[in-house]
Specification:
The protein is an alpha/beta fold. It has two domains: 36-262, TIM Barrel (Alpha-Beta Barrel); 269-393, Lyase, Ornithine Decarboxylase, Chain A, domain 1. Helix content is 30%, strand content 23%. The protein contains twelve helices and 18 strands. The protein has helices at 3-13, 22-35, 54-62, 72-80, 97-104, 115-124, 162-172, 190-204, 232-250, 262-265, 298-302, 389-393; strands at residues 17-21, 42-47, 66-69, 88-90, 109-112, 130-135, 157-158, 176-180, 212-214, 255-258, 269-280, 285-289, 308-310, 318-324, 332-340, 347-350, 371-376, 379-384. The strands form two sheets. Strands 1, 11, 12, 13, 14, 15, 16, 17 and 18 form a nine-stranded mixed beta sheet that branches. Strand 5, helix 6 (115-124) and strand 6 (130-135) form a beta-alpha-beta unit. Helix 2 packs across helix 9 (232-250), helix 6 (115-124) packs parallel to helix 7 and helix 8 (190-204) runs parallel beside helix 9. The longest helix has 19 residues, at 232-250. The chain is globular, with a radius of gyration of 23 Å. Substrate binds at residues 298, 302, 329, 356.
């Protein structure tokens, strides 16, 4: 998306503003599908938590994607977007049995990640097939907060507890129809990921009614020029051969599943914010924008990098700035960044703003959440209006004191 178009959107819809380009989403989707073209049955289930606007979900339905959900609310969003229950997998963590039962009643594929709930669910609903989330005890994420396959993780049933799974299955008569893992986000080392898949194959061989293996996702995208990312094409070569060999040994063709989120939508997103103030201190030049970690928390929460450019003055002399927000705490988007000279009123663009950005936004400091715009077939659509003061009060009840 070019600079002029983004500036036009900022002028038309105001700032701060999230913009999503469906052409990039489709490109990323096709990259994975093409990388695994040698697998007879490949199914991508978009991870709703990355970006849950219902219009984005409807676009994924057009791509023939399924959905990966982690809450009953995400399931409801998927159903509202037109997905069939059979196209949705539900992989919660730490939720009540009541919620799992409510989702199961909708006909959605259930994925269970702890022995206690597995036993309770199997006792009450032995006829409902479930998938098992395995923890392979492999550290594959790029940050401790998004690495979920290691031994200290709260996610999944340990590979050392597989005998306990068999005991539950024998005692309840329940049917295990899928095996799942997710090692974490920002995977760089394909060999480490492949080691985890071999563990999953070993587990899958122990169950006789498997219809699919879900390998999670966590594929890394580039955040800056020259950045390392997951080589999805090479992964396709290595894993496709192993998966097809597994199917032959298993005796039937089952589905290979992934649940990508960031890989599909991160690069499709742009966050536009206007500069309120340029402030020179004794050591730093701050560019303070009309946003903060209430809208884009990833830099403060994960130390994540978002490339920042000055759309209003791209040919200006490069200077060094710390780009900060208006939240009444340390609120830094980027420190000591080389950016074309910034003046008050300039529009800055934060790249890789499609995944875990708006979906993690809040009303902290009683600020409004921004608008969202989708670009589809070169047309722009407002897919979420900017909040107002009335929105802040909508669910608050006044009481007589």
């Amino acid at each position: 998306m070019n600079r002029e178009h983004l500036l036009e959107l900022a002028e038309k819809y105001g700032s701060p503003l999230y913009v999503y380009d469906t052409a990039i989403i489709a490109r990323q989707y096709e990259r994975i599908m093409n990388a695994f073209a040698d697998v007879p049955h490949i199914q991508l289930n978009y991870a709703v938590k990355a970006l849950s606007n219902i219009n984005i979900l409807r676009f994924f339905k057009q791509l023939n994607s399924g959905l990966d959900t982690v809450s009953i609310q995400e399931v409801q969003l998927g159903l509202t977007a037109g997905f069939d229950p059979s196209q949705i997998i539900y992989t919660p963590n730490g939720v009540s049995l009541d919620e799992i039962e409510a989702v199961a009643a909708k006909g959605v594929q259930i994925n269970i990640d702890n022995l206690s709930i597995l036993e309770l669910f199997g006792q009450k609903h032995p006829d409902i097939p479930v998938c098992i989330r395995i923890n392979p005890h492999i550290m594959a994420g790029g940050n401790s907060k998004i690495s979920v396959g290691h031994i200290d993780s709260k996610f999944g049933i340990s590979i050392h507890q597989v005998p306990h799974i068999h005991r539950v299955v024998e005692n309840t008569g329940m049917n295990i129809n899928g095996i799942h893992m997710h090692t974490g986000s920002d995977i760089l080392d394909i060999d480490t990921f492949i080691r985890a898949t071999e563990i999953l194959f070993d587990v899958a061989h122990q169950f006789k009614n498997i219809n699919f293996i879900d390998f999670g996702s966590g594929f890394k995208v580039p955040y800056k020029e020259g950045d390392i990312c997951t080589d999805i094409e090479q992964l396709g070569v290595q894993l496709s051969e192993r998966f097809n060999t597994f199917c032959k040994k298993y005796g039937k063709d089952i589905a290979l599943m992934f649940e990508p989120g960031k890989f599909l939508v991160s690069e499709a997103g742009y966050f536009l914010s206007k500069v309120n103030v340029v402030k020179q201190t004794t050591s730093t030049v701050f560019a303070g924008v009309d946003s903060g970690f209430n809208h884009l928390i990833r830099p403060m929460m994960y130390n994540s990098y978002h490339h920042i450019s000055n759309l209003s003055n791209p040919e200006g002399r490069d200077r060094y700035y710390s780009v900060v927000g208006y939240i009444c705490e340390t609120d830094t988007f980027g420190s000591n960044r080389r950016i074309a000279e910034i003046s008050e009123g300039d529009v800055l663009c934060f790249k890789n703003a499609g995944a875990y950005c708006f979906s993690m936004a809040s009303n902290y400091n009683s600020r409004y959440r921004p608008a969202e715009v989708m670009i589809h077939d070169t047309k722009d659509f407002l897919i979420r209006r900017r909040e107002t003061f009335e929105d802040l009060l909508q669910h608050q009840d006044l009481v007589d004191l």
